[in-house]
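This section describes the prediction task in plain terms. A model, or a person checking by hand, is given the sequence of a single protein chain and must write out its three-dimensional structure as a string of tokens. No templates, partner chains or ligands are provided. The sample shown here is typical of the held-out split.
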Amino acid sequence: MTTYYIDHVDVCRLLTDACKAAGGQKKWADAHGISSPYVSNVLHSRCEPGRAILEALGIVRVVMYRKREETAQ
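The expected answer:
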């Protein structure tokens, strides 16, 4: 199985698609025990998706770090 990483924009796309398939944000939120205002806030980038949304979408959060590039002097 190939591992690939997605960003916040991709998560929002997946959430948007899931809401459309469920018949709307409220229906999707209700089906997963999540408040619809919270779903809206995630979709409008007012907050990050938490565990409940990520689990419902089948996604896990991965934190990554990289070394800062040296600046030319």
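For orientation: The radius of gyration is 15 Å.
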